[in-house]
Amino acid sequence: MSDDSAGTSPRPTGLREAKKQETRQHISDQATRLFLAQGFDATTIAEIADAARVSKKTVTNYFARKEDLALDRQDAFVATLASAVAARRPGESALGALRRAFEGSLAAHDPVTGFTGAEFARMAAESPTLTHCVRGLHDRREEALAEALAEAGGAPGGDATARTVAGLLGAVHRVLFGRIQHLTLAGYAAWEIERLVAPEGARAFDLLEPSLGRLYVA
Amino acid sequence: MSDDSAGTSPRPTGLREAKKQETRQHISDQATRLFLAQGFDATTIAEIADAARVSKKTVTNYFARKEDLALDRQDAFVATLASAVAARRPGESALGALRRAFEGSLAAHDPVTGFTGAEFARMAAESPTLTHCVRGLHDRREEALAEALAEAGGAPGGDATARTVAGLLGAVHRVLFGRIQHLTLAGYAAWEIERLVAPEGARAFDLLEPSLGRLYVA
DNA sequence: GCTATTTTTACACTCGACGTAAATTTACGT
DNA sequence: ACGTAAATTTACGTCGAGTGTAAAAATAGC
């Protein structure tokens, strides 16, 4: 909840708020730099604090968990699938909307589809902690999608069906995400990956069409 | 390496091996008891060691991570889906085999399908650490399934298709697992859960039939 | 400038995880 | 049965993430 102009909550004055964001960004930048340079696990919070010239406590104050220092825009990532379904066109199924969303993100080389850059991909792949965290984000994304589907209606069976369909659609996006990350690690350029993955995505969405094409149609 | 009497593996003599298993089981039992009594996170390794009357190091020696003390038969769980596909009948699709496997496990109230008992379900739900770990097991299970599908053949598109289909089939089992866990937490008895979830499972597998029913047929 | 609030810091602490070398237990040849 | 070699267990130290607390510093509002 963010109140703007007129405050129910005491609206912290400009400079304080600005400095907070500045400090947060500075810490995040230093952390990212160190993570990419020497790996996630090999970088300690003390090092990050030292690089950012703040105390350890300030770091863990802004970022509750170490992983939060490496993963940016988590909420945006989590919301993508649910948003795509909520914004589907009249007559378009959830499957169709998520297909369009994937194709758009693929063409845009969007990080939420797996285009995270080779350095990040290497860092994530080398750290079990980070890998688990990314998996958690995929799960939250799937849950958000399930809620969006349940709210949208358009299929018999209620929440149970919504969760199942969200699992299926989430799985497709998750697998394609992993594929893009894998190809990134293998050294392919973004445009090459786009050309390689596009037909795989098409095949996957085609595959689901007979099962899901008539569900959750707006 | 000292090979003695017989054996490809150095076959440590009987008593030593027996005592090891005994100690391991004893530690696991004490850990389980404490976890169920006071929760996973609220139980320290030191307490477990104390209860089992061994040193902390012995505990972390047998169980590399704390979660391993709570999760039993991980490899068996991971293998279930891949095994079901490998053992599918002639003319049976992977979807059909996994449907049979689910129905059998559901009727048997098998832990691998989510019948873990109310105490365990509560413990797992209350501990983020444990929840993440269970998610990791689902992922390993999906990966094993993908390998089994790729090895089995029976679909165009090679590994990419295998991974996608494994994602879909894994998602169904995972969602149903979660549903059973949820109902367990809500206080339903196993036989009630069986009656509630059976039609949901049927609906989910029916849903996928038009898409996957003709793939990976033995 | 003064005061109240917020942010940052220093310090201490818990816990999981890892490493090492000594002490204990078990196995086996003689 | 005894002694030696091997494995197991233990005690001890270390590291790093994460938390709590109260003092110190910075900022807001008057």
TrEMBL record, chains A, B:
Residues 44-63 bind DNA. One of its GO terms (molecular function) is DNA-binding transcription factor activity. It comes from the Bacteria. InterPro entries: Homeodomain-like_sf, HTH-type_TetR-like_transc_reg, HTH_TetR. Residues 21-81 form the HTH tetR-type domain. Keywords: DNA-binding, Transcription, Transcription regulation. Residues 1-27 are annotated as: Disordered. PROSITE patterns: HTH_TETR_2. Residues 14-27 have a biased composition (Basic and acidic residues). Residues 1-11 have a biased composition (Polar residues). Pfam families: TetR_N. The keyword NAD does not apply. This is TetR family transcriptional regulator. It comes from Streptomyces chumphonensis.
